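Treating backbone geometry as a discrete language has practical consequences that deserve illustration. In the encoding step, the backbone of a single protein was reduced to a row of integers, each denoting a local shape. The amino acid sequence and the backbone structure tokens for this protein are reproduced below.
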Amino acid sequence: MMIQLLIDHYKRLRTERFLAQTYQYSYAFVGMGQHSLTNLYPVLHYLGVPLKYICVTSDRKARQIERKFPHVKATTSLDMILNDDEVKGVFVSASPSAHFSIASQILKSGKSLFIEKPPCQLLQELDTLIDKQQLYGSPVVMVGLQKRYGPAVQILRKRLRKEHLVSYDLHYLTGNYPEGNALLDLFIHPLDLVTYLFGKSEIIVCQQVSPASYIIMLRHPHIVGTLELSTAYTWTTAEESLKVCTSKGIYRISQMEGLTFEPKPSTILGIPIEKIHPHNKNIEYLYVLNNFTPVLPNNQIYSQGYFNELYAFVEGVEGNKANIVTSLESVRDVYLLIEKIKSH
């Protein structure tokens, strides 16, 4: 009986804590594509973010939005949003080629900005956005590179701070991508991931083996790694994997859904004991997506980092403590790396 009371009390506290989390400011969203509908809007709905406007490019779509979401004002005018003092934060997930122009206008208004990747097309444009943020004083500005917020990446980054790094091997393999710029739209993710984990890099080797396939070797301050970035494979079995070798063992991330650590067997006078006496492989599971229990932490929106990045943005706009790790300045090294890859 006592155990049941404790369980009921815990469940009640959990529900009350969720319901007590409310937001005082209004927000707007620019764009309504498949990515937004699948990965971003569900998080905003779950958090109860007061979305006042949705901005799209056509009157027809605006009318459809207001029928689908009667509590939201749909508009084709960005100025309507920027002139509304109630709106403190704006989410942007539109056509990548339009991001720089939209972001520039929002920063000039002084509102907080969440801009999906890529925020712009060139390093020079990124520097312009950084200057505009400083000039107009937008309080919170974040880039939508969500993998930095994934739990597997966060756990790995903390572990690697205590390790002597040796090398890494990353594979990011998809099918054909005819609708955009694979380097900026897709490969920015793995390039940003290794920059976030290992720091600024220089190119040792960069071989473009097809129009959108690269074999790259990078040198960071404390590690060297190789990357295979390609759209020559298939979307059905697309692969995203990272293996990091340290002096203590090997870390592996697979599809952002699992992080393991395999300790290296001990040696005596440099002789590997495993060659003398067979041993059972010992694997530590640091993070695993549990598909059995359909709760928030076991949802791909959470494991991929979408939930934590949007939560951090809204908390920051509301003036609460927020773990923001994707400022405009923080992605400058990634754009510098992309510019170097383009020149090879």
Observations:
- Residues 267 and 276 are 10 Å apart (CA to CA).
- The chain has a mean pLDDT of 93.
- The longest helix spans residues 2-20.
